[in-house]
Amino acid sequence: MSGYQSDLAYIHDAGFGDFARKSAPGLLAVLRRAGIRGGLVVDLGCGSGIWAAELTRRGYDVVGIDISSPMIKLARKRAPAARFIQASFLSAKLPSCDAVTALGEIFNYTFDGRNSLRQLARLFQRVHQALRPGGVFIFDIAEPGRALRRAHAQGKDWAILFAAEASRNLLIRRMTAFRQVGKLYRRSEETHRLCLYRSSDIAADLRRAGFTVRLLRAYGRMPLPSGNAAFVATKRKSN
User: Fold this and answer.
1) What is the mean pLDDT of residues 70-82?
2) In this predicted structure, what is the pLDDT of residue 150?
């Protein structure tokens, strides 16, 4: 189990946090429409805690779960009112809660090599059991056909080069990161492998777990990347 080591975690937080920030208003609107204006939100793949910090500012309790120790360290600094656990989303214990979120195609990553469509179906059942009646499960995935790109980005003390390639059901991202340490730059490399899932298969597994399902292509005014889909899965109040 690896991924988002110290330098890449720092760069992701410093340069790529806009998706979580700009998605927050739309996500909060989904919670409000479901009547969830407080209570516990479990954030799977919480990253550096940007969404968790927004939730705590709005009065929610938050448990954040991420497999990356450097991400958890950043999240604890950003959202001190939340509780964070380093664990795989496939094995972490889920407390009774009002909502579960997983933003940024978290369920596609194979940092935990057990990840598969079958394992996700089991996770959906566990989420359904953890949610209180009327609770919601909000997440997004990358599908086959996810847009590829080769590019670079940089900030005041970092730079990153990244490229991607895909087969039918697998996306591979190769990243070379440079982070300033004193007067020099430290180089590190990571390769991330993502299983690509069809939204129809995901929706079917959610329904089998007992959810009603709504498909989204944006969180409010924040559009998802091309080739991604989001889900709002609701546990029926009669359950």
Assistant:
1) 98
2) 67
